[in-house]
Amino acid sequence: MIIFLLFLSILLVFSASPKCPHGFPLHFERKPTALNNYTKDWCIAVVEYEGMGNRDRARSICITINATLTMPENKEEFIAIAKHVQARNKSTPHAIDGEFTPRCKVEMYRNQEFNGTAEKGECNVHNHLFNFDDVNTDPTFILSHFTGGVPNARGSNYGTGHPTFQYVADCLVLENTKSPNYTAPIGVTDLAYCVGAASVKTYTGSLFDLKREISSVLCGKRPE
What we know:
With 224 residues, the protein is α+β, with helices and mostly antiparallel strands. It has a single domain (21-221), classed as Mannose-Binding Protein A, subunit A (Mannose-Binding Protein A, Chain A), CATH 3.10.100.10. The chain contains five helices and twelve strands. Mean pLDDT is 86; it is low at 1-15. Keywords: Signal.
């Protein structure tokens, strides 16, 4: 009898469904692949906090709750996140994982005609254009649903007798989670400035506004 009860206990332990930690209401079952580090289950929270346009602040918020910057892996996950955002009236857009590599940003500064979609080398959007914190999420879906080109916002400051300083929107954000067309996401990925700066002043005295109000971030972690 004791052996039988022990056997049942072992079965219950191994058959129990993964449970997401407190504060992570979204649980996703995934197909394990090499691109998502063979992850079967993943938990996501949409965390609201001011200043999430600054990527280091957004990253710190996730680390504080023992999580990492993350993103939806497919259309179904995006729809679930959109429903969650709509039901709770959370702020949009959302900071998500992914920022241009320094090497590719240099290529953009050198080549004003740089096109991350048409680029043949490592800086193609589907190659190594981005660095990611989250090794448990396949970024293919996100990198296939941009709202515009890559990069889609850039500029420079210059003046007579002074060097030219360039800047480019370099961090990924998730859009359209409150759109009525969210059930058929076409453009859900956009770019914002990682620094989250309010503006950049030129030598002529004009201001270029770089700020984008981003007050929420997607954090992810494995279930308990």
